Amino acid sequence: VNLVQRNDAVSLIPQRPRYSHKGTYGHVLLVAGSRGKTGAALMAARACMRTGAGLVTVG
User: Fold this and answer.
1) Domain residue extents for the chain
2) Distance separating alpha carbons of residues 57 and 59, to the nearest angstrom
3) DSSP secondary structure string for all residues of 1-59
4) How many Å apart are CA 36 and CA 29, to the nearest integer?
5) Quick one: which of 35, 26, 21, 27 has its CA closest to 58?
C-alpha cells in the first residue's frame, strides 16, 4: 500500500501562467448522471476542474 501525500501530488501539477487561456488546458466532455442522481455528475465535473481541465461540458 502506498500513501500519497499532498506534497507528492503538488509536484506533479505544473504551475499555470497567471494570464493563460482555458483552451490551452483541454476540454472534457462528461457524460454522467441520471434522473435524480445529478450529484454524481456535479462531483465528477468538479473533479475535472480541480485536476486541471480548461473546460468541462456535462452532457
Assistant:
1) 17-58
2) 6
3) -----HHHHHTTSPPPPTT--GGGG-EEEE----TT-HHHHHHHHHHHHHTT-SEEEE-
4) 20
5) 27
4-13, 33-42, 46-55 — most confident range: 46-55
Give residue 55's pLDDT band: very low, low, confident or very high (50, 70, 90).
Answer: very high
Q: What integer pLDDT is reported at residue 30 of this predicted model?
A: 95
Q: How many CA atoms lie within 13 A of 8 on its CB side?
A: 4
Residues 6+ away with beta carbon under 8 Å from 7: none
pTM of the model: 0.69
How many angstroms from the chain centroid is the CA of residue 39?
A: 15
